[in-house]
Specification:
- Two copies of one chain form a homodimer.
- The first copy, chain A, is α/β, with parallel strands linked by helices.
- The first copy, chain A, has two domains: about 270 residues, Crotonobetainyl-coa:carnitine coa-transferase, domain 1 (Rossmann fold); about 90 residues, 2-Layer Sandwich (formyl-coa transferase, domain 3), CATH 3.30.1540.10.
- Chain A contains 18 helices and 14 strands.
- In chain A, the strands form four sheets. In chain A, strands 5-2-1-6-7-8 form a six-stranded parallel β-sheet, with helices on both faces. A three-stranded antiparallel β-sheet of chain A has the order 9-10-11, with helices on one face. In chain A, strands 3-4 form a two-stranded antiparallel ribbon.
- The longest helix of chain A is centred in the middle third of the chain and has 22 residues.
- Chain A is elongated and about 85 Å long.
- The interface between A and B is large, with 161 and 161 residues.
């Protein structure tokens, strides 16, 4: 990656030595700590004796959910009952020896356990606490039940992910837990920033960070809020096309797959039309520039789709790539897993899960010079409570004078 | 947010004192530095004399793009020609006095300018460098042109954001620059993690971080990769419904808007059906539990949609909220801007932009105890080169022995 050989001291994960406690469940907080663990933090996940409910989701091998192999990787798991005096005491012990904590209980729940920020800061005033919730720790909707799609819906994303005025079908979900993921990413980012601040200053106190699903999605709305405020414009969904660039759309192929093509610059447009055998059409004055092509886009889209319909997506893609026309078929998981670039970059890696056997893992989404993607998967998601003995013994050792 | 009053020393933004140089344009790198700037970092954006092309995008007031008021906020802007000897020298001066740098040129471009990681580390060995690209800094696709939708398409998201087998229409875009945003977030997170590492260790050297659009999107694919590897399953899009939970879907309303309803638990289902005047149906044995409801979901969806079609979305939402049924209409920008929760949390704030006038800004997506959302918007996106004099004078001052 970098031209110079990495210095030996750089060949460590960046967050080595940072200890983070997770009081999390389902997706958002565990995703935040998964990212921190990939970065080298020592994450101790605290679960109820029966385990995080997400361990029961989706397909499993020998009772072990395959998603959890990824979702729980690089973490230590301990089981504690937060309602019991012993469980609370152990959490306080953990917190006394940690740099940070991530939680995603409903607002007020940790306080009811006697483990709210004030309680935790009484034990460790330098603790950084990141809280994730549906709507945030205050405001009129604070106590409303948060459900999966709420962030997408209320943050403005679902309204935009649609084919407007063309279908009776509802706007589809993103297909992944996008609002939880975004909130988890912001929680991780805010947490590391606050730890950076604390690290430099022996007087610094820990911070409480408030992240929520709705604001996290809303943060991606580009210039839409000022546009509404200044001009009263309300951005509407655009489907798969871009109104101001033509031809740029997603086209159906012979095998039922879709091909995304960005052919809107003058030169690329000519190459695209030559590749599909329509050079004559490309030369017509009414397609001479992007503005004119936008006016006559329906005709162009029809001609391009007529061509893509005759070929499987991968074949059409290969022809356009050769013509240097930017395009990509819509990858499904097989496409991702078998793609040579994904394999070369070790975006897809086979690792050994002691509970499951050989299993494919995705790489961490960042790579650091001197560290291979494989090094960043230190171990797979452990069984609930797998590290009880190790962690509790470690606490005793560290508590010794 | 926290129960205790914030200590005075905590009432500062967490990244105060971190200096970050941006060699960025368009979305991904500038979004990364926007988040860092919101967190308090001193971000110096280096632009070509004619400015970042994104300044010409979308609607404008007096020639100032309204999106840039948000996208460029809290940053200092300097203009430099990276092709000129003077421009390169100034970048080296900036880098000599900085903690980190973010760039999103095409792989190899900075090296051609003589400003690659080796060059920059020769000036400042502790500099953390975050690089954002379409496909990453190596691998067979490294030099392929990256376009906006590529990450969405190749990372696996566009395949899932669809109404499968029900429509001839292509899967819609997310409606925002999701892959750029995700990559920017990971770049910011990796950068702060590496700065945390460097801060604690006088011997530590800077790192090079490689983030790309495709891996960033691919990181959200949950358990789909191990599922494919173990069982050969390829996750297919599910539209707006959830196959394993019923009724949970998005329903059309009288005003053309959509209402997302999550009514799949037994108790909530009963409350939902009572609220729409169908208690009798809720009592029928074939709807007695979630598994049975999933089997007979078409009938349920039809009955619920028949009810939602009679009411504007906000009215139907109010009725279901009173019945404690989790739901949300799909917010458009007017809904967001006018919502009492958004206003109470200052997710939507009116600020003064000296170039544009009064303008609405979204809050930073994280809040820290003792810091109001308003404090986190220190200034709006400046004109290109607005800080040339200030920054270059600062460099001279700092260079004095």
């Amino acid at each position: 990656m970098s031209e110079k050989a990495p210095a030996p001291e750089a060949a460590r994960l960046p967050l080595t030595g940072l200890r983070v406690i997770e009081l999390g469940h389902y997706i958002a907080a565990p995703f935040a700590t998964r990212l921190l663990a990939d970065l080298g933090a020592e994450v101790i996940k605290v679960e109820p004796p029966e385990g995080d409910p997400v361990r029961g989701w989706g397909s499993a091998v020998n009772g072990n959910a395959v998603w959890f192999s990824v979702h729980g990787r690089n973490k230590l798991s301990v089981t504690l009952d937060l309602k019991s005096a012993e469980g609370k005491a152990k959490v306080r012990q953990l917190v006394g020896r940690a740099d940070a904590l991530v939680e995603n209980f409903r607002p007020g729940q940790l306080e009811r356990y006697g483990l709210g920020p004030a309680d935790l800061h009484a034990v460790n005033p330098r603790l950084v606490i990141a809280r994730v919730s549906g709507y945030g720790q205050d405001g009129p909707y604070r106590d409303k039940p948060a459900f999966g799609a709420i962030g997408e819906a209320m943050g403005g994303l679902r309204h935009l992910t649609a084919n407007p005025g063309q279908t009776e079908l509802p706007p589809p979900r993103c297909g992944v837990s996008i609002s939880d993921d975004l909130a988890g990413m912001y929680a991780a980012m805010g947490l590391v920033a606050a730890c950076w601040q604390v690290k430099g200053d022996p007087q610094a106190l820990g911070r409480v960070i408030d992240v929520d699903l709705v604001s996290s999605v809303f943060s991606l709305m580009e210039g839409m809020l000022p546009e509404y405020g200044l001009f009263g414009w309300v951005r509407q969904p655009q489907g798969a096309a871009i109104k101001t660039a033509a031809p740029t759309n997603t086209y159906p192929c012979a095998d039922g797959k879709w091909l995304c093509i960005a052919g809107n610059s003058d030169l690329i447009f000519k190459r695209l039309m030559a590749a599909i055998g329509k050079s004559g059409m490309a030369a017509e004055p009414r397609f001479a520039n992007n503005a004119l092509r936008c006016e006559n886009v329906a005709e162009l889209d029809a001609v391009i789709a007529a061509w893509t319909r005759t070929l499987p997506a991968a074949e059409a893609e290969a022809i356009l790539e050769k013509a240097e026309v930017p395009c990509s078929r819509l990858y499904d998981m097989r496409d991702c897993a078998e793609d040579p670039h994904f394999r070369a970059r070790e975006l897809v890696m086979q690792v050994e899960d002691p509970l499951i056997g050989p299993i494919l893992h995705p790489a961490a989404p960042f790579r650091f010079d001197g560290v291979s993607p494989r090094e960043m998967v230190r171990w797979t998601g452990p069984a609930a409570g797998a590290h009880n003995e190790q962690v509790f013994r470690m606490l005793e050792e560290e508590a010794k004078p």
